[in-house]
Amino acid sequence: MDYKDTNMLRKFISDRGKIRARRVTGNCTQHQRDVATAVKNSREMALLPYTSTAR
């Protein structure tokens, strides 16, 4: 999982910007950990927002 692929990472975060749970995404433990790391790196590089206010 690449932190620069924001289109793919957006599938794993909610509309509020939270990382979706394993039971929702269907990932195994290792892949969920990879997704979480990529999302966190992407947030730190300002490619994804930390939070999003959906109104």
Structure overview:
The chain has 55 residues and is an all-alpha fold. The chain has one domain (6-44): 30s Ribosomal Protein S18. It is built from three helices and no strands. The protein is globular, with a radius of gyration of 11 Å. It starts with 5 loop residues before the first helix and ends in an 11-residue tail after the last helix. The mean pLDDT is 94. Binds as a heterodimer with protein bS6 to the central domain of the 16S rRNA, where it helps stabilize the platform of the 30S subunit. Belongs to the bacterial ribosomal protein bS18 family. One of its GO terms (biological process) is translation.
Alpha carbon gap, first and last residue: 30 Å
Tell me the domain tally: 1
Would you report the number of β strands?
0
Summarize the main sheet: none
- Name given to the CATH architecture: Irregular
Beta-strand level of the residues, as a percent range? under 5%
Average pLDDT works out at 94
The CATH topology is 30s Ribosomal Protein S18
- The number of distinct helices, counting runs of at least 4 residues, comes to 3
Name the structural class.
mainly alpha
Order of helices and strands: HHH
Stretches where pLDDT is under 50 for at least 5 consecutive residues are none
Keywords: Ribonucleoprotein, Ribosomal protein, RNA-binding, rRNA-binding
Protein name: Small ribosomal subunit protein bS18
Organism: Streptomyces haneummycinicus
InterPro entries: Ribosomal_bS18 (IPR001648), Ribosomal_bS18_sf (IPR036870)
